[in-house]
Amino acid sequence: MLRKTVMCEGSALVDRVASNIEDVTDKQVRILMAARAEFAEKGFDGARVDSIAERAHANKQLIYYYFTNKDILFTRVLEEAYRDIREQEAALKLDHLPADQAILQLVEFTWHYYLKNPEFIRLLNSENQLKARHLKDSDITVQINQSWSSITQQLLQRGRVEGNVREDIDVMQLNINISALGFFYLINQSTLSIIYQQDLSAKAALDERLRVMKECIAAWIKPH
């Protein structure tokens, strides 16, 4: 009987601990999501912890308890932003495609990710204005992004064997080109729409941009 009572109490304790952990995780996730929206909308300097607390329906002191200060909170937001795009990128099914077509699939993925997650490029733009001072203090950002290079490295190696990708393409340059072709367009969309007197956010314009991006990358990686 005593043993049964002890077991029941032990089980209840485990349940309470699990519930507490789940509650803490939920609160942290809500704070991070609220912070992502606030930082993306106003940049690091313009964002306010009070506003983040209001968005998260959380106490401001709770934010400081979990994340210490605004800088660490922004670092966590950046890390989670990178984690999300890399996890989705790693989940792509590319093995059945010829290497050159798989690379173009990466172009499509990156473009559509930017469109679905406009906060991502705004967060990176804000951090670049700060000379990446938060990412310099991050212990995991490089690790999180390792898959980015690994995927393209494998595709380039396979493309050389298949004969459909140039042998002198550099992994870093390929990744930067794929990112830049979409990033520049979207981060400058408003000003470019004024200069060229057309709505560059319209579906037809976005579809045309993707076509041009894929055409540029396809021409660049094609063997001579």
Write the layout of secondary structure elements.
Blueprint: H1 2-46, H2 49-56, H3 60-67, H4 70-90, H5 99-116, H6 118-129, H7 133-136, H8 141-144, H9 146-162, H10 171-187, H11 189-195, H12 203-221
Helix pairs in contact: 1-2, 1-4, 1-6, 5-6, 5-9, 5-10, 5-12, 9-10, 10-12
Describe the structure using short key phrases.
single chain, 224 residues, mainly alpha, 80% helix, globular
The helix content, as a percent range, equals: over 70%
Spans of at least 5 consecutive residues whose pLDDT stays below 50 are 12-21
| Overall mean confidence score, pLDDT | 92
Question: Would you count the extended β strands for me?
Answer: 0
| Broad structural category | mainly alpha
Order of helices and strands: HHHHHHHHHHHH
Sketch the major β-sheet. Answer: none
Radius of gyration: 22 Å
Question: Can you give a write-up of this model?
Answer:
- This protein is mainly alpha-helical and 224 residues long.
- The protein has 12 helices and no strands.
- Helix 5 runs antiparallel to helix 9 and helix 9 packs across helix 10 (171-187).
- The chain is globular, with a radius of gyration of 22 Å.
- The model is unreliable at 12-21 (pLDDT under 50).
